[in-house]
Design brief:
Layout: E1 6-10, E2 15-19, E3 23-28, E4 33-37, E5 44-49, E6 54-58, E7 66-70, E8 75-77, E9 90-94, E10 99-103
Parallel strand pairs: 1-3, 2-4, 3-5, 4-6, 5-9, 6-10, 7-9, 8-10
Length: 106
């Protein structure tokens, strides 16, 4: 898995990232985004897509401000989230897909 920062940008294929890095920035125009951040020290996670699912897995002990927004989809989270989105360390945006934020099973 990744141990440094990740910046990934694609248009149509699935984008999957797994690792202990501290920063993940993922943009995908029409494909799925899946991020598994294994370190509780993750300081930034941004994921944006327009027409597919965003799936994020985080350690149970992560302590970050999380926001998730979709226009036509559902948001499910194992963690508390903020409504405003401003100042969030973890910001997830989707136009026409669902967003899930799950704890990594121990």
């Amino acid at each position: 898995g990744v141990t440094g920062s990740v910046m990934a940008d694609t248009s149509f294929g699935a984008l999957r990232v797994d690792g202990a890095g501290n920063s993940f920035v993922c943009h995908n125009q029409s494909g799925e985004i899946a991020v598994r951040a294994t370190s509780p020290k993750v300081t930034k996670l941004v994921a944006r897509t327009s027409f597919n699912h965003i799936a994020v897995e985080l350690p149970a002990n992560v302590n970050r401000l999380i926001s998730a927004r979709t226009t036509f989809g559902d948001v499910t989270s194992d963690f508390p989230m903020t409504v405003s989105g401003s100042g969030s360390d973890i910001a997830l945006e989707d136009q026409s897909g669902s967003i899930s934020i799950r704890r990594i099973a121990e």
